[in-house]
Amino acid sequence: MLQSNAGGQIKIHHFDFISWLGKVFTLNKSRALDVQTSYDINNRLARLLKRDDFRLNISYDLYVQINFDSDKRLARLLNLSSTGAAIEFAKHGQLPGNNSETEFQLLLPGHTESLSSLARVVWSRLPEKDTISQSITMGVQFKDLDEETRACLWDFIVDGETSDHS
Predict the structure, then answer these.
(1) Residue 52: what pLDDT?
(2) First-to-final CA distance of the chain
(3) 56-162: CATH homologous superfamily?
C-alpha cells in the first residue's frame, strides 16, 4: 500500500492479505488465525492469482472432443485453465489411459474454428461404487500450446469469470 506524508514522500507499507481479508469479511478479531493457517492461505491465494493456475468452472454444457489412438470421444468440460482442463465422460466406451497423449479439441462459444492442442492425461477418477452417476472424470494437461491459443483460452476464462453464464 502506498501512502504519502506531509513532505510529499511516499512510504510503502507491506500489504497483509489476511488483514485485508479479515476486514472484507468482518472476521471476529478474537478468532486470530495461527501462523501456519495464515501461511497456507497466503500461498493458496498466491497460486490462484497466477494466470496459469486459475481455473474457470463451467456450469453449462460445453463439450470437447478427445482423439486418441483411432478413437474419438466427446466429453463435457468441467473446468478450464490456460494449462489444462477437467472433463467428464459417460462410462461406456474406450478411454485414454493415464499418461497417454490425446488431441484436445474445443469449439468456444462465438468462435467458428475449434481450438486444438495435444494433451496428456494426468489423472482420472472412476465413479464411486455407491453413486448413481456412472461418469468418469479426467484431467488433461495441454502440451506445446501456442501463445495465440493460450491467449484465446485466457480471454474465454476471463470473460466467463466476469459474465453471468459461467
Answers:
(1) 52
(2) 32
(3) predicted glycosyltransferase like domains (2.40.10.220)
